[in-house]
């Protein structure tokens, strides 16, 4: 497999509610799709929302939303270009009444980071990492000397 | 927030075991890191492995690995450039004794898709989608007429 990620799909309880969160609170523009799914184009990585039951069926596994723990074994992250951008994002999240799980703070690895949860409890870290560069096109450059 | 994804972190039970899986079975090259974490550069999106307990601590939530259901509310996907590439990937996974959850098959949306699980049960879909183009650099182009 080439070193790339094509898509991440989050299981959701109420597709309209979660799509509205990413559209109105986060500010991303959904692609035109049938009403059963939502896609957002994150610079060539597809961010997708799909109902829990349909997703579990597609995988051939069984689950119910009641089995979901608060911590689901993964987190997504958005790297901001500055501490000020992190603060501005959390100010916006607060304005919209989003679920802020950890206010941004200086963290042990030298960055500045906080967490929010989307309407289904999926966790997003919003961080400023002085060791990594966010390129003009939004992609991460891990090697400072490249 | 700009439309981009910087990183996805998977919680793992045994970091060495899971890092070896992505390195030896999947074929990706890890970045140099301290032993507490692993990073893989997926074309400017960072794919990270981090122990469950450290990750939950970082988020300020409590969990145990025993609370993890088989279905964890999300899936990652790798879009292959052809059906043949999908088959070649599953042949390799089988050779390495990886956990194949769904053999690739033609699916209702017009593609060809299967699933495997990594050592911690995180699900990956490997699919050929004739409606989306995989660009030379690996990023997805959803709009066929761009």
Concise synopsis of the structure shown:
Two copies of one chain form a homodimer. Chain A contains three helices and nine strands, in the order βαββαβαβββββ. Chain A is α/β, with parallel strands linked by helices and 146 residues long.
Describe this structure in words.
The structure is a homodimer of 146-residue chains. Chain A has 146 residues and is an alpha/beta fold. The first copy, chain A, folds into two domains: 1-59, 2,3-Dihydroxybiphenyl 1,2-Dioxygenase, domain 1; 74-134, 2,3-Dihydroxybiphenyl 1,2-Dioxygenase, domain 1. Helix content of chain A is 23%, strand content 33%. Chain A is built from three helices and nine strands, in the order E-H-E-E-H-E-H-E-E-E-E-E. The first copy, chain A, has helices at residues 15-26, 52-59, 83-95, and strands at 7-12, 38-42, 45-51, 74-79, 99-106, 112-117, 123-128, 133-134, 140-141. In chain A, the strands form three sheets. A four-stranded mixed sheet of chain A has the order 4-7-6-5, with helices on one face. Chain A is globular. The two termini of chain A are 24 Å apart. Strand 1 of chain A pairs antiparallel with strand 4 of chain B.
Please name the defining characteristics of this protein:
four-stranded mixed β-sheet, alpha/beta, homodimer, globular, 2,3-Dihydroxybiphenyl 1,2-Dioxygenase, domain 1, 2 domains, 23% helix, 9 strands, 3 helices, three-stranded mixed β-sheet, 146 residues
